[in-house]
Amino acid sequence: MALPTSSVITLHVNGEPRTLPVDHRTTLLDALRERLDLTGTKKGCDQGQCGACTVLVDGRRTVACLQLAVATEGRQVTTIEGVADGDRLHPVQQAFLDLDGYQCGYCTPGQICSAIGVLAEHAAGWPSAATADVRPSAGPPPLTADEIRERMSGNLCRCAAYPSIVEAVASAAQPAPAAGKGTGPEAKEPAA
Ligand code: FES
Ligand code: FES
């Protein structure tokens, strides 16, 4: 008996249920861009190397090109289209605008989603490879430029806007941004 190769699934994207039939091989990135017309999420390498496709799934940073759409059913997906609160930009979006955290802008949606995840992870006390004292009792490390560079290292920028991106993330961290639709980490362990 042949096994089915497609399913009808419901994705919860930016607070709304979206039901669609998908081939089981469809990535979350292709479902968002090609099926739901949410083209803010960009395809760069399509193999998990550049971070351009970063979205938040249940508040955690996820490269959508390596995530199958069927494996995302029932989870809360936040894309760049969903991080603002109506006409009010998310503090990270505003910081990128104010501090020129982009040039061509192709990597920017992924950078912003990743930065929202970084700030939530940092606020939750998660260490990074740049953290000197990783004991839980030490609390969140200072969000230095080195910490930001390390935590954002999965997001590449061909325009090399890195100095402004680091400034924008540091600026958005003060004060810590309010959690948007599903933008806070719910799990306690850092993403691998
Ligand atoms: S397009 Fe997904 S990491 Fe590059
Ligand atoms: S702003 Fe052009 S790739 Fe980053």
Question: Can you describe what's shown?
Answer:
The protein is α+β, with helices and mostly antiparallel strands and 192 residues long. It folds into 2 domains: 6-82, Ubiquitin-like (UB roll) (Roll), CATH 3.10.20; 91-172, [2Fe-2S]-binding domain (DNA polymerase, domain 1), CATH 1.10.150.120. It contains 5 helices and 5 strands, in the order E-E-H-E-E-E-H-H-H-H. It has helices at residues 28-35, 91-98, 108-123, 145-151, 162-172, and strands at residues 6-13, 16-23, 54-57, 60-63, 76-78. A 5-stranded mixed sheet has the order 2-1-5-3-4, sandwiched between helices. Helix 2 (91-98) packs across helix 5 (162-172). It is globular, with a radius of gyration of 17 Å. The structure holds FE2/S2 (inorganic) cluster (2 copies). One FE2/S2 (inorganic) cluster (FES) binds at residues 43-46, 48-53, 63, 65.
